[in-house]
Structure formats: C-alpha cells, structure tokens
Amino acid sequence: MAAEQELPLFLGLTDKSIVDIPKTVEKQRYMTSVAPPAANPGKWIEMPRLPIPTGEHAVIECQGNIHVIAGYAKHRVDGDFHQVYDSRSRTWSLKAPFPLPCNHVAGVAVGDRIYTFGGFIEQNRCPHSKCFVYDTATDQWAPIAALSRPRGAISAIVLDGLIHLLGGRDVRSVEWHEVYDPAANKYADRANMRGSTGTQPFVGQRDHMGVAVVGGKIHAIAGRMDSYDFNTSLNAVYDPKADAWSFRAPLPTARSGVSAVTIGGKIIVFGGEATGRVFGTNEAYDPNADTWQSLTPMRVPRHGLHGATVALIGDMVHVPGGGPVPGGSVQGAYHDAFTFS
C-alpha cells in the first residue's frame, strides 16, 4: 500500500508524463446552472485520496464502506483493482482483485454482497456479459448468471431487493431494462425505456445515465445516445407497480457521465461531460414540486463513475476518483464528499 500512495494524484491513460490535470482543461470546465439557487446550496469537503487514480470505474457503498472496482487505472483501460474505503477509520485498502479486468462496470450492494454486471474490455468497445458477486465477509468473488445481451455503461439500482439494470451500450446505446433477482439468480425483462408515444423511440436509448430512487420509483436522468455529442437532459421515471415510464421536469444542464443520488428527499445530479466540456455543475431535483435548483458546484469537476456512481454514507455523498477532463485520457485519485450539513 505504501508504494501505491506514492502515485501522483492524477495519471494519464496513454501519456505517462501526465501527473496532474492539464492546464488546458480550465477552459473546458462548466460550473454553472440556469436553475435558481437553493436556499441551502451545500458544500464539498476533501476526503482521503484513493491509493490508485481511477476512472470509468464502479463506485458502490456497502455497509458503510466504499468499493471502487475495475475501470481505467495505471495507464490501462482494463483494470482489476478493488479499492475499499473504511469510513470509520478513514483509510483505503486493496481487496480481492476484480475477476475480469475491464471498465464501465455496473454494480450495486444488497446486504453484505456486491453484484456487478457487464462492462467493456476495451475503451468503450467490446462489451461483455459476465457478472459477479463479491462476499464482503470472505473477500471472494464468484460468477453469477450472465447477461443475456452483452453491454457496458449500464445504470444499476436496487428497488425492493431487486436490481434494475437500465440502458447501457453494446455497439450503440440501448433502451433495455431488465431486473436481476439475487435470490433466484435470474433475470426478467421489464418495460423498456421508450418514449411515451410511437414517435419517441429515441429517448430511452441511453447510457452513462444517473439513476436514483425516490418515492418507490426510479428516476433515470441525463445520459447520452452513442456519444457525448448527443447528450440529453431527460428525467424519465419508472413506476414498478405499473411497469411503465413517465416524464418529469428535465435536468437543466444536459450532460452524460453524471453521478446521481437521493439525499434528504431530493435527487442531486452533478459532474459529467460533453464535447469539449467537463462539468462541475450540481443540481437538485424536488420530486414533490417537480422543480430543479442549483447547488454548490464540484471543486474538481469530473465524470466517469459507474455502478451506483457514488456512495452515500450518513449525510455525505462520497465521490472517489473520476476523469477531470472530457474523455478517458486522465484518471484521478481525488476524493471529496458533498453534504447539506
């Protein structure tokens, strides 16, 4: 671990001379929002850094610990690193490596186990269908039933003990929606993320989305179709009782590669990327009023956190790693947390 701590705060993917955020990114940062400011905009607090700078990785909270899995790391796109942050001791450690080095892995926690789904074994290419479960008690990975259709950059979230897998990308973005039952180790299809009419087939074909649960419904927010040249601000809501989608007030700032989480009854969406831009923009959605407000932007704008995208521990939203420039050319070990307190 000591040797890992000697790594710089940032690393280049293909350019090993990069050990910091390039100065050119200052002109690419987008920090603002057209949404009205919130009365309590919250604040960002710097936290202990990751041992290994990482991007396009899974971030999952499990029983008070943060698991950072796979992704781009150490000048490769196919990392197998498994970094774990103990929120009580405020320290990082390395656990059992991920079984299949890859990136854009989706993952969630159910109880004391972490489930992962799909990913890419090249940079945004070559999707795979392999899925795994990690037992935190034994520090061991094991295979589970594979996806029926290989893809990466899936958005995953738990609702009532079932794992919803939304969108993603095989060769192009997809609108697929399936549910994995951990107890049965089986998948079942649900209503695809389609438009509300036959003339709206595009809106559900998305990857790099933010997802959050509030009021027993899933919000799938922002994302893109095929590339960040085609970002969306869509806020689509899935009702599991009706097995149907509806649409609410869109995200004020269209982007993909965002992080999303429910905290204090509101959904916050921050970070992301677009052509020539990396976002620090932070916006909050009130599901009761169907309105958005702007919050304090990220100190270090970045994108590329997958799985559950962020880790909520108590009243703090932890954001470890991520890409501080558009695309995958730089990875970060920077770790901060957002709180309304």
Count of alpha/pi helices? 1
Which stretches are poorly predicted, pLDDT < 50 over at least 5 residues? Answer: none
Query: How many domains, as an integer?
Result: 1
What is the molecular shape?
globular
Please state the structural category: mainly beta
The percentage of residues in β strands lies in 35-45%
Percentage of residues in helical conformation = under 10%
Radius of gyration: 18 Å
Strand count: 31
Regarding quaternary structure, what we see is single chain
What is the CATH architecture assignment? 6 Propeller
What's the overall average pLDDT, rounded?
94
The major sheet is characterized as: 6 strands, mixed
**What is the CATH class?**
Mainly Beta
Structural notes for this entry:
- With about 350 residues, this protein is mainly β.
- It has one helix at about 1-5; strands at about 10, 30, 45, 55, 55-60, 65-75, 75-85, 90-95, 105-110, 115-120, 125-135, 140-145, 155-160, 160-165, 175-180, 185-190, 210-215, 215-220, 235-240, 245, 260-265, 265-270, 275, 275-280, 280-285, 290-295, 305, 310-315, 315-320, 330, 335-340.
- Strands 4, 5, 6, 7, 8 and 27 form a 6-stranded mixed beta sheet that branches.
- The mean pLDDT is about 95.
